[in-house]
Design goal:
Layout lengths: L7 E2 L6 E4 L6 H11 L3 E3 L3 E2 L14 E2 L2 H9 L3 E7 L2 E6 H9 L3 E5 L2 H10 L4 E6 L3 H11 L4 H15 L7 E4 L3 H16 L6 E2 L5
Parallel strand pairs: 2-8, 2-9, 3-8, 4-5, 9-10
Antiparallel strand pairs: 1-11, 4-7, 6-7
Helix pairs in contact: 1-7
């Protein structure tokens, strides 16, 4: 082996699933993550829930009626779908495949049900679960949004406890105590996963 020969790392993009209880701030973390590394691309999620103030159809979510969602679901257009807080959410299969073909690490902002389903289809996916600093902080964030009724907040807090019990089925758990810091931790995980020998390390002939 000459001194010019060395190992090569072939970067093969994979889906990155990020889940968290409602109110943990995963959307803000994902936005920050995408802003600091252009090799990452967010998979667009379809939903039947109404758009919140400032959200743009086709940019933040693909907002569908229940009838439209059912048509796409019956056609097999979603790699996963689930009903969360009385609204349907689903990830269009094309949202993932097109990103991977372009050499992008596709980031999916989905609930725990969706995350575990995606792993069945994409066994090379990396699953990361975000936790709030405390349950008190989570409740404060939910109330601070001003978008949910007392009944909805109670349901989300109960669901948060159930969702956090599934965190052990994920590859990593990260506490979102600060958006920028949390996004940095996620990027470190993605870079580390990219360097796994099982993902594409090529050794020189004769090594």
């Amino acid at each position: 082996m000459t001194h010019q020969e060395c190992c090569r790392l072939i970067e093969r993009p994979f889906p990155v699933v990020i889940s968290a209880p409602s109110g943990t701030g995963k959307t803000s973390v994902v936005e920050k993550l995408l802003a600091i590394d252009g090799r990452l691309k967010r998979a667009l999620t379809a939903t039947t829930r109404p758009a919140r103030e400032g959200e743009v159809d086709g940019q933040d979510y693909l907002f569908l009626t229940r009838e439209q969602f059912q048509e796409k679901r019956d056609a097999g257009d979603f790699v996963e779908f689930a009903k969360v807080h009385d609204h349907w959410y689903g990830v269009p299969r094309v949202s993932i495949t097109e990103g991977l073909k372009k050499g992008k690490w596709v980031v999916l902002n989905v609930d725990v049900q969706g995350g575990l389903t995606i792993r069945k289809t994409y066994t090379n996916a990396v699953l990361i679960f975000l936790l709030p600093p405390t349950m008190e902080a989570l409740e404060e964030r939910l109330r601070g949004r001003g978008t949910d009724s007392e009944e909805e907040i109670a349901v989300r807090l109960k669901n948060a406890t159930d969702e956090m019990s599934v965190a052990m089925d994920y590859d990593y758990v990260v506490v979102n105590d600060d958006v920028k810091t949390c996004a940095g931790r996620l990027l470190e995980i993605i870079h580390a996963e990219t360097s796994r020998t099982s993902r594409g390390l090529v050794m020189p002939d004769g090594a």
